[in-house]
Amino acid sequence: MGANLAGFELHKIWSLGRFAWAIPVAAASAAVLGLLGRPNVQIAQLAGGLPLVFLAVALYQFGGDVFSALSFGGYVALLSGLFLLCVVPRMGRPPVGA
User: Full-prediction pTM beyond 0.70?
Assistant: First the structure.
């Protein structure tokens, strides 16, 4: 696969890499909507789910070599994706039973 995965060169080694721009665009959209005080849970979940979808597809196509090619930014994207997917929808909701 290569020594490292760089975002700007991802399209050269992976046909779906040209869609990697969708991750920062969705995250920026969620951030802007949040700053404007608009509802942004769905776009935040989309932004959180995209890195996980890319990881699942890459694991299917390339196997476990994907983890050796990920750098620090890749792991940060996965962790923040899990946060956006799992935690953000629960923020601001009243506790159960209240």
Answer: no
- Only one residue has tokens 């799992």, namely 86
Residue 4 backbone phi and psi in degrees, to 5: -140, 155
How many other C-beta atoms are found inside a 10 Å radius of the C-beta of residue 82?
A: 14
Q: Judge whether 75 and 38 are in contact, CB under 8 Å.
A: no
Using the structure block, give the residue that is written with the tokens 């700007």.
8
Between the CA atoms of 89, 93, 96 and 98, what dihedral angle is there, to the nearest 10 degrees?
180
Length of the chain: 98
> What gap in Å lies between CA 2 and CA 79, rounded to an integer?
23
H or E element at residue 36: none
Tally Cβ neighbours within 10 Å of residue 12: 10
Q: What is the pLDDT of residues 33-64, one digit of tens each?
A: 989 988 887 888 888 888 888 888 878 887 87
